[in-house]
Amino acid sequence: NGDGGDIRFVPAPEEMPASTALNPMTISPDGRWAVVSSEHGSKVGVYDLNEQRWVNFIETDQRVAYAWFTQDCRLMWLSNWMSQILYDTTTWKPLREWRDREEPGALGMIQGSRDGRLMATLDGMSVVLRHGDTGEPFLRLRHPMPMTAAWLALTPNGRWLTYSALGHIQQVWDLANLEVEMKKLGLPWRGPHLERTSDQPPLTRLIVK
Asked: Could you give phi then psi for residue 53, rounded to 5 degrees?
């Protein structure tokens, strides 16, 4: 757990090749499920930490890179080099798949807000904002000097989105402010409403060494 007081080991499953390493991907918000993938494969394993057993193995047609659970743990997203796939965690069956990547084969990292309403995914040189429960895209963001994306992070409340790319590029978006500014310009904001709360001070300067 987070304070280091409880350590659990996930055993290697027979269903995954013993010759490849297992990559830890994520743990569900309730601490029940651990998700791992094979190093070079397209198979994902879901391990129940409470019952200490493997509950499901998911096979996709591409190597899976990232996983993300909604806050209520009813849904899980998997991202591979081609698409994002939504699963129902009661049946572990796919509900929906989005194959709308502009740059298939590029890094497909996923981040989501704590309430599960907002999801951000990397797509080559841009970031795609999506509805967390359906995956439907509503906005694509791109740095003024586009470079291949390397990392993505979203604050728990969904307001601040940070992005890094090759070429030492760092970008921070205030999504709540972006929503307001787009509406002022008469442009549609089709995503979830984001509150401009005062729990985080405005960013005035970013220095990267």
From this structure: -155, 155
pTM score, two decimals? 0.77
Place 206 in a pLDDT band, splitting at 50, 70 and 90: very low
| Cα distance between residue 76 and residue 9, in whole Å | 22
Cα 85 from Cα 97, distance rounded (Å): 4
Report residue 137's pLDDT band, with 50, 70 and 90 as the boundaries: very high
**CA-to-CA dists, residue 14 to 18, 19, 29, 57, angstroms:** 7, 11, 26, 11
Quick one: which of 33, 69, 37 has its CA closest to 49?
33
Starting at the edge strand found earlier in the chain, the sheet holding 53-59 runs 22-27, 33-38, 43-48, 53-59
Q: Contact at 8 Å (CB) between 155 and 172?
A: no
